[in-house]
Amino acid sequence: MTARSDKPFGEALRTLMAERGLTFRGLAQATRSFDGKGITHAHLNMLANGHDRPSMRAMELIAGATDMDPSYFAQYRLAAAMRELDPEQVGLEQALQNLNARLGDRRRSGAKGRRARAPRARPHPSD
Q1: Which helix (H) or strand (E) holds 97?
Q2: pTM of the full structure
């Protein structure tokens, strides 16, 4: 199985459930073992069908119940990045440090996928 999904949450969840042979009720029961509350089968159905947005807690419970890392879900990675860059969550200084670190990582990686610029023609001075 792929360690990360780039699919929308509902599609990634349905795929994960199919691969694990889980029903909504079975997954709901498995999520209860983590915090005693878990997620109801009705809420899981709504998440899987795109009628509700998953919280980080919901993604963490689902990941734990399916023996996956929460970062399997693209929405979890996005929410974590947004939280890391939110001054109200981490403070302005930390948010700026996090942003600079992310930009530095991007520069060091060579901005994968970007094509190199073609050299520009330079005009020759006329005689």
Answers
A1: helix 92-108
A2: 0.71
